[in-house]
């Protein structure tokens, strides 16, 4: 018997459920996980890498996260 296919990616080391989709745009992942960083529909102070490749903000809508992908999301923090 084979194991069912994974429907999750790893985001910052934790499972992220793709909710039955084959792929989810990076922009949707950021909006779902960091709603407080979205100002006027635009994420602020956020950087994303998928499988160790930085994804430019302009490519978030067309770059997808698939099952098994490793995603790192980093947020800027102000202070000293």
Automatic annotation (TrEMBL):
Domain of life: Bacteria
Gene3D superfamilies in the cross-refs: 3.10.20.30
InterPro entries named in the record: Beta-grasp_dom_sf (IPR012675), Mopterin_synth/thiamin_S_b (IPR016155), Thi_S (IPR010035), ThiS/MoaD-like (IPR003749)
Pfam families: ThiS (PF02597)
PANTHER family according to UniProt: SULFUR CARRIER PROTEIN THIS (PTHR34472)
Protein name: Sulfur carrier protein
Source species of the chain: Isoptericola jiangsuensis
């Amino acid at each position: 018997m084979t194991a069912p296919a994974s429907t999750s990616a790893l985001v910052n080391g934790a499972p992220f459920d793709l909710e039955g989709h084959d792929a989810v745009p990076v922009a949707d992942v950021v909006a779902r996980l960091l709603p407080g960083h979205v100002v006027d529909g635009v994420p602020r102070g956020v950087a994303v890498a998928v499988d160790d490749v930085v994804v430019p903000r302009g490519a978030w809508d067309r770059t997808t996260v698939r099952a098994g992908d490793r995603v790192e999301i980093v947020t800027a923090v102000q202070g000293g």
